[in-house]
Amino acid sequence: MKPLVAIMTALLCVLAVTAGGKDALVVDNTMHDYGDLLISHGAQSCRFEFVNVSDSVVCILGALTSCNCTTVDYPREAIEPGQGGAVVVTYDPVGRPEGEFERTVLLILNGESRRVVLRFKGNAIDDSASFLLQQQLPLMHH
To answer: Which pairing describes strands 60-65 and 25-27: parallel, antiparallel, or unpaired?
Structure first.
């Protein structure tokens, strides 16, 4: 049954390519600010909510990220007119330099010139040194 659903979804997306139009998906907010992000807390996710405001089916065909520290989870099924959904973007600061960061995600949609750019930013703080210091402090009192 799953292969049939996948084939039907792909067919809907191919047929909708000819519908054209722009601003098919309207995102509530295309920028997320994590603020201060402790590296020791690992990967953090944010949600970008959207609605298909076009009169045709929209499919998210893929997502390109500006960094391999970012993963994207998006709906794989066709998004009908008026239907909403969410894209979940996860940023992993582990192994990245501390300091301010800004990244982008490009969603590729069916149809001509249909793209959505999502952005997120924050300030990665390496708190491992302070954590180690706190762990050693009790030992110094003995």
So the answer is: unpaired
Q: Enter the tokens of residue 79.
A: 């998004």
Closest CA to 38 of 90, 89, 93, 91: 93
Specify the DSSP element, H or E, that contains 16. helix 2-17
Tell me the pLDDT tens digit for each residue of 66-102: 999 999 999 999 999 999 999 999 999 999 999 999 9
- Global pTM value: 0.76
DSSP letter (8 states) at residue 58:
B
Structure tokens, 100: 């301010």
Would you list the domain boundaries of the chain? 2-134
Of the candidates 129, 122, 127, the one whose C-alpha atom is nearest the C-alpha of residue 67 is: 122
3-state secondary structure of 99: strand
Instruction: Report the CATH number of the 2-134 domain.
Output: 2.60.40.10
Show the beta-strand stretches assigned E in 24-128: 25-27, 31-38, 44-52, 60-65, 70-73, 84-91, 99-109, 115-125
